[in-house]
Amino acid sequence: MFECEKCGKVWFHPVGECVYCGAKLTERPEGKPEVVASTKVMVDSPSSRAPYFLVLVSDGTDKQFAISDAEPRKGEPFGTREPAGSFECVGVIGSGKMGLGIALLLVQYGFRVVLKTRDAKKGPQIRQGLSVLLSRNCDPAKIDEHLRRLSITDAYGGLKECGLVIECVSENPEVKREVLREASLSCAGIISSNTSSIPVRSIAAPGARQRTLGLHFFNPVMKMKLVEVVQTPDTDLSCVQKVKKFCHQIHKQPVIVADSPGFIVNRLLLLQLEEARRMVREGIATPEDIDKAVRLGLNHPMGPFQLISLIGEDVVDDIGRIIRSQKEAAIPAAQPPNRKKEASDSRGTTA
Amino acid sequence: MFIRGIGRTKFGVLEESVPQMLYSAIKNAQQDAHIRIEEIDACIVSNFIGGQLENRCHINSLIPCLLPGFDKPCIRVESACASGGAALWSATKMLGEFNHILVVGVEKMTAARNSLVTSALASASDVEFEQNRGVVFPAAYALMASEYFARYGRSPADLAKVALKNHHNANLNPLAHFYHKTISMSDIESSPVVCSPLRLLDCSPVSDGAAALVVSREPQGARDVSILACEMASDVIALSQRPDMAVSRVSRTAARRAFKRAGIACSDVDLAQVHDCFTINELISLESLGFCEPGMAPSLDTALGGALPVNTDGGLKADGHPIGASGIAQVVETAMQLRGEAGARQVKGAKIGLAHNIGGSGGSAVVSILKGCADV
Fold first, then answer.
1. Does any CB of chain B come closer than 8 Å to the CB of residue A71?
2. Quick one: which of A23, A262, B8, B370 has the fewest CB in 10 Å?
3. pLDDT, tens digit only, all 351 positions of chain A
């Protein structure tokens, strides 16, 4: 609920300024919600399948509807508060496609972002590029507001205040290891890598393994909803929880995956791409017909060969090499006890 | 009757929701009009496919949520792509009863699946005789283009010139969907065919956005824009049931009524916003509105600085086409031009402007004729 600082009028949508007196609106802090009324719903609604309980909750001033699986009692406190630990400031290392995409996404969701590049002289150029990208979907007045939240630095010291750092440098274990080591020394927050296939534990700084995890965004960052959250055997559960909440805040869907070759998406993808190439070698079908079959029969937006030409033959080969070499090295991958614990801890908050 | 205040959002792929876009446009128009919300007597909301895309009907009832305490009459007006024009038309009819009316149009289109948007847009056409027989809007306008080419010896090159001009105008309009995008003739000519002979860059984009007007019975000052006429006309919904595909009969009828009401001729008009949902429609409409003989629209000088600048904000083609807002944005642009506040795309000495808004393939149309008040 948003309240005008001057005239006290109230809005339920985040509309910015008061149309009556021009003053800023401030978000009213939420009190403790209590059940005011409820009904058991026996017909399906667009947002939930019957039966469920529709609950009207109030914190004394603000009333809202909510859905509950369990029968609520009038006057009882409702729900549990989301765990705190959102990040006010996020560091992004690397100004390639993924780094810039993530930085752009975060400033639009109101995060302060520190972008660490190798060369701070490129700052104005990067800012200009981001401004053009923003102009595609932003009011001109908002572009400056978004970009004011972004600072660009070439010093790791700039990451000091970040609650979360996302490393997005080139897919090279040596480079990533060095970057994560530097980041861990400068920043006491959660350290993450946007690697798509390198085992996170193998590049984590030895002194910071509890607070290191994988955070694999997909290209293009603005459009793709998925984030693979990679949990190593050392990663603290609290870090995973915080990062999950962070993903929801930026309207992404996190999945939790153990530190393993190719995680979920690339492990499956690689099998498909390599099998498609094998089919062509064996003369089973033409690339065009394989693409068509996968599009129409599996309902994928594009076929394997279209995808290979989009991401590049060399990149596919690289990922394949990395995943195969890891499988052969038989890294102890999944950690079932941790996984179970994470799953049970999260029960109820994601439903 | 006067346009007292104007306001709009950026058009394009926006992150804002329908309530947020409505609020921005209303606030801009209210501030521009120097009017208190309490003085507004009624509100008309123009929206076309919020029902299909977001299950959001009864959108008029959002207004009291955005203007706390507002309990005056609010209604939603829908006439497909002419919803904005029809909302303004309704306001002019209601000004007999009221002093100040808020007219606001909005559409949120980019968050929905493409297939859903396509089918929702097709709801502006006839069910039995069009939708059930494979007609989608690009196809309807493609057939009009083929007929036009065959009859007047015109070609896709004439359409490309319209696209190029409107994209150029949009490059001068920071709020336009394609403000940032530079389009060349070869981009247009090599863009993929959507429905032959129409290419992608002959089509208006799918956009989000909102636009608002404060319309008043009495004048307020020199920044007012007088509504000399706002006339609506209708025609049968199915294109196949109209006698001539190369003429916009509904536009001709609305224009004749509007010119008669305004007591002026086509030659008195200094600039026009013409419904260019597809490039072909700018040409056909200019002829049907009476600006030239049939088949001669490609010879008109419609660039900024030309004899009759057309779609100075980029038009639906390049300013964007958030349907419920489009017809109102045409009036916003016309008012800016007549006030002399259009900046880099200002038409020098513009005194009279025309806005032309079509629903569907020509089942409804609204023509408004506006005059600046600076020297009245």
1. no
2. A23
3. 899 989 999 998 888 899 998 899 988 887 788 888 888 888 877 766 777 888 888 888 888 888 777 788 888 888 643 333 458 899 999 999 899 999 999 998 889 999 999 988 888 899 988 988 888 877 777 888 889 899 999 999 999 989 999 999 988 889 999 999 999 999 999 999 999 888 999 999 998 999 999 999 998 898 888 999 999 999 998 899 899 989 988 888 999 999 988 899 999 998 999 999 999 999 999 999 999 999 999 999 999 999 998 878 887 888 888 888 877 765 554 444 444 444 444 433 333
Rounded Cα distance, B9 and B322, in Å: 11
Is residue A15 less than 8 Å (CB to CB) from chain B? yes
Q: Is B34 in the A-facing interface, judged by CB distances under 8 Å?
A: no
Determine the residue among B8, B9, B13, B15 to mutate to test chain A binding: the one whose Cβ has the most chain A Cβ atoms within 10 Å. B15
Cβ count near B355 (within 10 Å): 28
Instruction: Choose, from B81, B203, B230, B277, the residue flagged as catalytic.
Output: B81
3-state secondary structure of B271: strand
- Cis amide bond preceding B192, omega within 30: no
Report, in angstroms and rounded to the nearest whole number, the Rg of chain A calculated over CA atoms: 24
| B9-30 mean pLDDT | 96
Whether A136 contacts chain B with CB within 8 A: yes
Partner residue opposite A139 with nearest CB, options B9, B36, B55? B9
Residue (of A198, A234, A94, A134) closest to B174 by Cα position: A134
Q: What is the value of pTM for the model shown?
A: 0.69
Say if B26 is an interface residue toward chain A (CB within 8 Å). Answer: yes
Look at residue B245 in the predicted model and tell me its pLDDT. 95
**Tens digit of each residue's pLDDT (9 = 90 or more) over B113-145:** 888 898 899 999 999 999 999 899 999 999 999
Which residue among the candidates B100, B177, B321, B356 is catalytic per the annotation? Answer: B321
pLDDT value for A120 = 81
Instruction: Single out the catalytic residue among A95, A182, A194, A216.
Output: A216
CA distances from B158 to A48, A293, B312 (A): 53, 40, 18
- β-pairing, A2-4 vs A10-11, is antiparallel
Q: Rounded to an integer, what distance in angstroms lies between the CA atom of residue A90 and that of residue A104? A: 12
Interchain proximity A15–B23, CB inside 8 Å = yes
In chain A, residues with a C-beta closer than 8 Å to the C-beta of B65 are 11-13
Give the other-Cβ count within 10 Å of A234's Cβ.
18
Coil, strand or helix at B132: helix
Is-catalytic flag, B321?
A: yes
B172–A contact, CB cutoff 8 A: no
Give the end-to-end CA distance of chain A in Å, rounded to a whole number: 24
Query: Does B12 sit within 8 Å of A137, measured CB to CB?
Result: yes
Q: Is residue B100 annotated as a catalytic residue, yes or no? A: no
Residue pointed to by tokens 């032309």: B356
Beta bridge partners of residue B371, listed in sequence order: B226, B352
Residue B262 is encoded by which pair of tokens?
């305004």
Choose among A15, A17, A137: nearest Cβ to B14.
A137
Sequence-ordered list of residues with C-beta below 8 angstroms from that of B222, at least 6 positions apart, any chain: B373, B374
- Work out the pLDDT band at B375, boundaries 50, 70, 90: low
Asked if B65's CB is within 8 angstroms of A12's CB, the reply is: yes
